[in-house]
Design a protein that fits this description.
One of its GO terms (cellular component) is cytoplasm. Belongs to the archaeal adenylate kinase family. Its EC number is 2.7.4.3. ATP binds at residues 9-17. This protein has one domain (4-33, 81-195): P-loop containing nucleotide triphosphate hydrolases (Rossmann fold, 3-Layer(aba) Sandwich), CATH 3.40.50.300. It is of the alpha/beta class. The longest helix has 22 residues, at 141-162. The chain is globular. 51% of the residues lie in helices and 17% in strands. The chain has helices spanning 15-25, 35-45, 60-78, 103-109, 121-130, 141-162, 177-195, and strands at 4-8, 31-34, 83-87, 90-93, 96-99, 113-118, 165-170.
Amino acid sequence: MPFVVVITGIPGVGKSTITRLALQRTRAKFRVVNFGDIMFQEAVKAGWVSHRDEVRKLSLKVQRELQLKAAQRILEISQKEPVLLDTHATIKTPLGYMLGFPREVIEVINPRFMVIIEANPSEILGRRLRDLKRDRDVETEDQIQRHQDLNRAATISYAMHSNALIKIIENHEDKGLEEAVNELVKILDLAVNEDA
């Protein structure tokens, strides 16, 4: 039976770092799949983009097509091994925010658990400014908070369509990365035990 745990958070929240460190400590065995990477691979194959950050600037129709292709690939993988899906619940596009999982996509992936990583907007802004590898939009702290609020709302909607459980993990500078990683390890261990 397919088994997917979604981990989401807005760019700069520390989602990928927390995921990487948690997987080194958990007893559970997951294959990490990045939803955006699969969309990017499909877009490159089609000749639409050459850089990952260009995907979110494609037309909504093309992005939705890429989302569905990615979902189908993830389903195939999850039928063979548990998947930890690193993704975004909402994507900021030039026209507004797009759902990371439209109904037809969430129904294909059908996750068991959804983990949201959050932080204070000032922390996220600082992390984004230090990350020179990515072409990130410049946003105010208010815009960052709005994006996090949209992520929560979207994740609740996804859970309604998949019956997934939701967990929010805070990744604050003062709280420490270690605590956030430990929380994710607990969730991953419980998720696999819950499925057994």
